[in-house]
Amino acid sequence: MGYSGYEILWLFFVYSFFGWILETVSAAVKRKRFVNRGLVNAPLCVIYGIGAGLITVFFQELSGFWLFACSVIVTTLLEWTAGHLIERLYHERWWDYSGNRYHLDGYICVRASALWGGLALVMMYWGNPFLVRIFGLIPELPRMIVLLSLLIVLGLDAAATLIIMQGRSKRMEQWEAVDQWLTGVSSRLGREIYTRVDARIQKAYSVERLPKEREKVPDVFAYGCSPDKIVWLFVIGAFLGDLIETVFCRFSMGRWMSRSSVVWGPFSIVWGLAIAAATLLLYRYRDRSSFFLFTVGTCLGGVYEYLCSVFTELIFGKIFWDYSHFPFNLGGRVNLLFCFFWGIAAVVWMKLLYPRASCLIEKMPVKAGKAITWILIIFMCLNMLVSCMALVRSEQREKGVEPKSGWQKIMDERFDDETLDKIYPNAKTPK
Predict the structure, then answer these.
(1) Partners of 334 in the beta sheet?
(2) For residues 260 and 269, what is the distance between their CA atoms, to the nearest angstrom?
(3) What phi and psi values does residue 224 have, to the nearest 5 degrees?
(4) Coil, helix or strand at residue 104
(5) Vertex 134, ends 56 and 122: CA angle to 5°?
(6) Where are the chain's structural domains?
(7) b/e map of 196-223 (b: 16 or more CB within 10 Å)?
(8) Chain CA centroid to CA 288, Å
(9) How far apart are CA 416 and CA 396, in angstroms?
(10) pLDDT tens across 371-418, in order?
């Protein structure tokens, strides 16, 4: 069953609210008082909504074990990310799985991950169809007003929270008023829920305050895992990924072909994002064993490639790779052998290539490095934008849509079907 954008947005807010209720009740049971466990002040725990939205959009083709396994990986990654984000923003630890076996940093563990996978099955089989039917019963105008109102509230809440935490706004008092109002709404609703929980349950735990650790940063360009370095690693990874795939196709298929994701230059965006994301996720674990990095890389790499395959098909109406002829493949989007390649790549990158690349990047002069970084950001953003426009126009041409606006005529002139066939030789329209 396919879902429209409005239905996805509806599910996002509903599951965010359900998640907030779950966290509120859990905190009330354990702490004997109301605590807002969301990253924002409104009665929404957006991490639940994000997870539900990702699973709903990307895993509609899956069922049974594969739906469970992919949902476990995605929700576990989200929980790990949320835990470290809360630690970074609030200097607090809101949950701790250190008492469980097979945990990582106390933010994720096998038992909790299995629970999220089970809830994902319930959501996909029963929750989504039921909630979408309810959404369909609401008249069109009221449901659009509700969704728009919720988006505005969430946007104001997120902006107020970020600005107040950063403390850099001249109009902070106005944002504080918004923040206090949202907090009041959340608190009143939360206390109402709390009163329905057994008030005699003994307080079980308190939030662990974490010390603010400030690392001394040397006066070098892109030190550590800074945003500047991530940009450089993205570009380097995109270039190396295109090179590796081009050489691989030459030896495996006997011919040279373009493996680029963009219309200008030999860059594979899938590889670039993979290198950047792997560095962000695995940087703190770079000294862990090769087996640990291989296992994490295999699981995350497989799900990442699956998500990229679904995303490009949904947005551009094209299939850019098909592994149907490989054994142990999943819908032709991923296969076991290439998942192992992702695991090996994670080990090679973190143990061998990243330290060397990091040292080379940090040797750049600070001012020149900053300037070149912005040039790379602008170039890659324009490159990806034009590439998206060319692919969208290609899909329109297949449907017989005549060029009416300026950008359509420019795409037809600069990136016709023959040109795109050379850049994306393996792209095909799904049947």
Answers:
(1) 330
(2) 8
(3) 65, -135
(4) strand
(5) 40
(6) 5-209, 227-423
(7) ebeeeeeeeeebeeeeeeeeeeeeebbb
(8) 24
(9) 12
(10) 999 999 999 999 999 999 999 999 899 889 999 899 999 999 999 999
